Amino acid sequence: MGSDADMMTRELRRNVLARLRPRRAGAFAGKMRPLWAAYLAFYRRIRRGLFLGLGVLFVILGVVGLFLPVMPTTVFMILAAACFAKSNRRLEQWLVNHRHFGPHIRDWRAHKSIRLSVKVVAIVLMGGSLLFSIFVLQLPFWALVAAGAMGAAMVGVLLWIPTRRG
Description:
Elements: H1 4-20, H2 29-67, H3 73-85, H4 89-96, H5 102-111, E1 114-115, H6 116-137, H7 141-160, E2 163-164
């Protein structure tokens, strides 16, 4: 006989193997369940990596939006928090508890809308930066068209998101 630890190890191994055994009969049924479990683990790992990559991309776009008012920072940080919620809890908590971005993310999660004052400030800043680009920077025409298209798209997104008064 073995020790109690050896018996517990054998019992645990027997329980794990019983869970991996197929429930239906067939020639390949014994191999299907472990393969399916491996597939699910691989799928979850890939999905988690994609959400993590998207979250990092949205944080980068949000930081760029701090310096280029044509791009709203808040929308990208909310998207990043949603991606981090599905991939990395530590990064999600960092973003939700952030001094500047956290209140907007918590507000979004509580009400699923953006305050009217935040929308007005974002649209005014985007319009101001576009006017600054037109009159001060003297950018080429294609750059102005690209900035205008991006600004119009961002204003469209802001207007599409539900508004909350207060």
